[in-house]
Amino acid sequence: MADTTTADTITMEVSRYRPEQESEPALQSYQVPLRKQWAILDGLNYIKDRLDGTLSYRWSCRMGICGSCGMTVNGEPKLTCSTFLTDYAPGPVRVEPMRNFPVIRDLVVDISDFMEKLPKVKPWLIRSDDTEPEDGEYLQTPEQMDEYKKYSMCINCMLCYAACPVYALDPLFIGPAAIALGQRYNLDSRDEGAEDRRDVLASAEGAWACTYVGECSVACPKGVDPAGAIQRYKLTAATKSLKEFLLPRGAR
User: Fold this and answer.
1) In degrees, to the nearest 5, what angle opens at C-alpha 182 toward C-alphas 179 and 184?
2) Is CATH 1.10.1060.10 what the domain over 112-251 is classified as, yes or no?
């Protein structure tokens, strides 16, 4: 098929997979307006609204907050609401589902594995008792907040899983985002649940499975640096294990 891209349009090559019709995904080309303010998601919405109402994909907030519009754009994991068509001019721009997840339909992937693994790291504040402080708040200094703030910016977009070569080869790996979120709470001065998370985070399928390729941090649209969080947790876990081995129980 000849490329009919003009200065005012761009060709979007979109992965189509309808299991009742196709045995495997295939690219389908569409011509969409090339406008400076249009993100990849705007192009997909144009296709859905004007050209082909059968196209399936996920999106919600359009503001880089919900994390639902993650896809593969020209081979790279991206949030399509914050990745612009003009960055790929003159085109074509290829849009495919996120890698490392089963494809349900077109650009929609099955995220069940992530949703099952995430609660295993207990990504919430854990306290040893239910006693509330007198003023109703657990106060923190700015320095204490800075310890974990970067890791709290995760929006569960799963782009790090799509970029992770370890997860691609070993589906038992708990994954970058889950480990980073567990570490986020371990570093929170209000939390007392590090031991509760240890069996998962320090397991063979946890932080130790990571080979530190770093692609997860490159793909993260929020600068969370899951690779850094994982390596930091490895140091914490190794130090803890060494102390338990060398020191009497009361001196740890």
Assistant:
1) 110
2) yes
CB 86 within 8 A of CB 36: yes
Superfamily of domain 9-109: Beta-grasp domain (3.10.20.30)
Contact between 107 and 71 under an 8 Å Cβ cutoff? The reply is yes
Q: Which segments of the chain belong to CATH 1.10.1060.10?
A: 112-251
Tokens of 109: 């992937």
Cα 24 from Cα 22, distance rounded (Å): 5
pLDDT tens track for 62-115: 999 999 999 999 999 999 999 999 999 999 999 999 999 999 999 999 999 999
Strand partners of residue 30? 12
**Does the CA dihedral 150-112-71-53 come out positive or negative?**
negative
Closest CA to 40 of 77, 79, 6, 68: 79
Q: How far apart are CA 107 and CA 186, in angstroms?
A: 35
Q: 240: Cβ–Cβ under 8 A, 6 or more apart, which residues?
A: 198
pLDDT at 133 over 80: no
Are the C-beta atoms of residues 34 and 89 closer than 8 Å to each other? yes
Q: Omega before 119 cis (within 30°)?
A: no
> Residue 113 CB: number of other CB atoms within 10 A?
17
User: Is 185 buried (19+), middle (13-18) or exposed (0-12) by CB count in 10 A?
Assistant: buried
Distance CA 118, CA 251 (A): 33
